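Changelog note: in this version the structure field was regenerated for every chain. One regenerated record is shown below for reference.
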Amino acid sequence: MKNKPKRYLITSALPYANGPIHIGHLAGVYVPADIYARYLRSKGEDVIFIGGSDEHGVPITIKARKEGVKPQDIVDKYHSIIKKSFEDFGVSFDIYSRTSSETHRKTASDFFRKLYDTGKFIEKTSEQYYDEEAHQFLADRYITGVCPHCGNENAYGDQCEKCGSTLSPMELKNPHSTISGSTPTLRETSHWYLPLNEYEDFFKEWILQNHKEWKTNVYGQCKSWIDLGLQPRAVSRDLDWGVPVPVEGAQGKVLYVWFDAPIGYISNTVELLPEKWEKYWKDDETKLVHFIGKDNIVFHCIVFPAMLKAHGEYILPDNVPANEFLNLEGDKLSTSRNWAVWLHEYLEEFKGKEDVLRYVLCANAPETKDNDFTWKDFQTRNNSELVAVLGNFVNRALVLTAKYFDSKVPAIKQTTDYDNEVLAEIPKIKQNIEAAIETYRFREALKETMNLARLGNKYLADTEPWKMAKTDMERVSTILAISLQICANLTIAIEPFLPFTAQKLLKMLNIPQYKWNCFGKTDLLKQGNSLGKIELLFEKIEDDVIAKQIQKLLDTKKANELNFYKPNELKPNIAFDDFMKNDIRAGTVTDCKKVPKSDKLLQFTINDGTGTRTILSGIAQFYPSPEKLTGTQVCFVANFEPRKILGIMSEGMILSVEDADGKLVLIQPSRKVQNGTSIG
């Protein structure tokens, strides 16, 4: 978009409502999107920021089936958790809705019907796997078998998670249904497809020629897909959870989640602005920007634009500034292994430090390549940057004003050349921040924002007003007045990045929130105005606090080891005699409770037929009411070498298995057996 837009429409990837939110989500999508939205609002632009939960698809049905509840129960639970996490971290959506709403169902149905009625789909009949016992067609994730590439015996029908190969169910050897365990049969079924191949020339011009300014990771992935040749993509599937296909004779078919979900951006806008939504989606003077992670690039740059183009009434995205992935302590974030920093847990353990995490995630954002979050870096950035730079400058300026001018804003008497040089830097920093934000370089924008605090720190250190207080109060007045004006400008600069800190500083300065056009002015604080109560903006984070977080992660690793959990890894073959060295037995749980100071471990007391033994198992998150396990029987390795964990001697290993969505489930006898019975 060449001309300045009249309005902005910002969307952020719809998180999948089958689990809570972790720092990878925040760093990759929601912090940068929120910074951009807050910045535009501060500039007085017409902007709406759209969010919501993605609530359809197979993973939802799998989780519901495993937990013995309805899919709606799953999405209701996690939609609420996700929405609250965003609110708690100040992600300023104008609406955060969901794809299970009636508004979405109607919007998605109407969208499909428009493409159907105008002949934009092709209909194809193909053979798909069918579970004769469950009486249903099987989605790819409901089929497992042997990977044809690496031999993994537990590959899914769409992907092998060991070697990473993309698969189709037909490629699997020895396929079986995860629902009934039976071998599926092939049956014919018809579906509608969006012929992406018909849009190749359009994408070559629209992306490859006209959007070379897109981030290199985004442009490169799009080019790769286009160069390989686009293929028709199914927009419907046989499933009982989702938006029903609005065509006669399509009973038992729903819109494919990849087609359904991005329409959620539109339906959530309809819900927010039922009378005015079209001007944001159908007016060329609107600038549409999608914030996503790299795993969604193809859907937002090729698939969704093809849908919009086929419809014919909608604008296309101006930019899709996708980020790469954030790792945790050198290892890939993993929900199934609980290798994550969950936002709701962070808020419990770091009360009032929402902005510290926002700052660290922005300063270390994976904008052009995967990046790493470490607790040591978190501590260093808090102590050396937020406390020592931003917090230190603000505190010194306010404390000195309280000391020498009774917390009243002093006057700028007569400025020196150095004073004027410092003041001249403020609008330059403003311009640098603007240039960075408007090209989606948020790390650089944050660095420039901190340069304003560094400017103030250096100014106080160079002028040393505390040394002049006995001889030249006029000079002290000017220095502190200028320092306070820098503080006032900081309230504008930091608000998009650190909204809670901005509000705290506004109260201390006793001023309203100024808009972006006031940034650079040196009369934001009026002479004689009283300052508010002085507080520390940030506090130092001590080593023991960080050590506790690192220990939590170490406990997670140990818990995973206790459960034989090795993701994506097949162990080498062993001899029968080696297997028989394992003494696997059944025993009754006489007591089960959480281990103090650990969020991951449960302490089992087992009747093993000869007495009792204590075994620790890292499954606490999957069994929130451990006392309910008392009286049940479990399988355990009786001759596993004892080891001390958190001061407790664990005398064996409880056996569990990981289901399709990463939940660990205890292995138990199908009927009661004598305690101590050998298994093998």
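Spot check on this record: Residues 564-568 have pLDDT under 50 and may be disordered. The chain has four domains: 7-115+256-332, 120-233, 374-518, 569-679.
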